[in-house]
Specification:
The protein has 300 residues and is an alpha/beta fold. Helices cover 36% and strands 23% of the residues. The strands form 3 sheets. The protein has a 5-stranded mixed β-barrel with strand order 8-11-9-10-12. A two-stranded antiparallel sheet has the order 2-3. Strand 2 and strand 3 (38-39) form a beta hairpin. The longest helix has 18 residues, at 282-299.
């Protein structure tokens, strides 16, 4: 049965092994790799909190203890900083432990994003909830997630964030077949194809790592067989929901995203993200940008 309550919980899958970043991720979770001086996962949690979600469930796996430590208090470090009179450092480390109520559950085996979301069923219960992938985030202050929550509250069903990409990139994402609605930034999703070859893509509007799901998704996921890559795909479950009646929690809408998104899931995009943040942060840019210009000039 569908629910029209507002979402207050966020689920952040962070169980991946990070093999693209070996050897760094042999002992450090990829979500803890810093963008300048803040772990990627903190940007993601801050995005959820900024949208009004104050209950965060992180889906982790073996070797991810550093994530739990990051969002916990660090009493010994606090005492050292306090003794040094380092008020700024003290504020920084306390912020991560005071952001929200953060909970954890483990995904025992790498069975796909759909399976990771299914691991949240007991914590979420019969409530709508947001899903934010743990290795990308939108520009701080961007209204995408808040807008998605508004659409869910108004229309029910599930909502995905959609971004237009070149046809040569659609095979990296789940591509959506869409129809217009009475809102310029909202479309109705009628079909989804996970990582299609360009000629099979229904459009070049693709799902980025932001979802607001009706709890009906759990029942669908339990009956979703493994798909591409032998994994349970969230995209396949959303495709089923798109064709279900609204009374049963069906219907999928997309919010068109035109802002900046930072992907830290591969080395090149991760490095681009660091450079962009370093160039735009006032406390870093004055020293970094002139050095970068000189370095690039010397490269010829």
């Amino acid at each position: 049965m569908a629910t029209t309550a507002g979402a207050r919980k966020a689920v952040i899958p962070a169980a991946g092994m990070g093999t693209r970043f070996l050897p760094a991720t042999k002992a450090i979770p990829k979500e803890m790799l810093p963008v300048v001086d803040k772990p990627t996962i903190q940007y993601v949690v801050e995005e959820a909190v900024a949208a009004g979600l104050d209950d965060i469930l992180l889906i982790t796996s073996h070797g991810k203890r550093a994530i739990e430590d990051h969002f916990d208090s660090a009493h010994e470090l606090e005492e050292v900083l306090q003794a040094k009179g380092d008020a700024a450092g003290l504020e920084l480390i306390r912020k991560s432990s005071e952001l929200a109520a953060v909970h954890y559950t483990r995904q025992g085996a790498p069975k796909g994003l759909g399976h990771a979301v299914l691991c949240a069923a007991q914590h979420v219960g019969n409530e709508p909830f947001a899903v934010l992938l743990g290795d990308d985030f939108t520009e701080p202050g961007d209204p995408l997630l808040r807008r998605m929550l508004q659409v869910r509250e108004r229309s029910g069903g599930s909502v995905v964030g959609l971004m237009e990409v070149g046809m040569d990139q659609v095979s990296l994402y789940g591509a959506a077949a869409i129809e217009p609605t009475d809102s310029d930034d909202v479309v109705r999703v009628t079909d989804l194809v996970e990582k299609p070859v360009p000629e099979d893509a229904p459009s070049n509007q693709v799902i980025i790592g932001r979802y607001v799901c009706d709890p009906a998704v759990f029942g669908v996921l339990r009956n979703t067989p493994p798909g591409r890559g032998g994994e349970i795909q969230l995209t396949d479950a959303l495709k089923t929901l798109a064709q279900m009646p609204a009374a049963d929690g069906g219907g999928v809408r997309g919010v068109l995203f035109h802002g900046r998104r930072f992907d830290t899931g591969n080395r090149a995009d991760y490095l681009r993200t660091i450079v962009q943040f370093a160039c735009e942060r006032p406390d870093v840019a004055d020293e970094f940008v002139p050095w970068l210009r000189k370095y690039l000039d010397n490269l010829g």
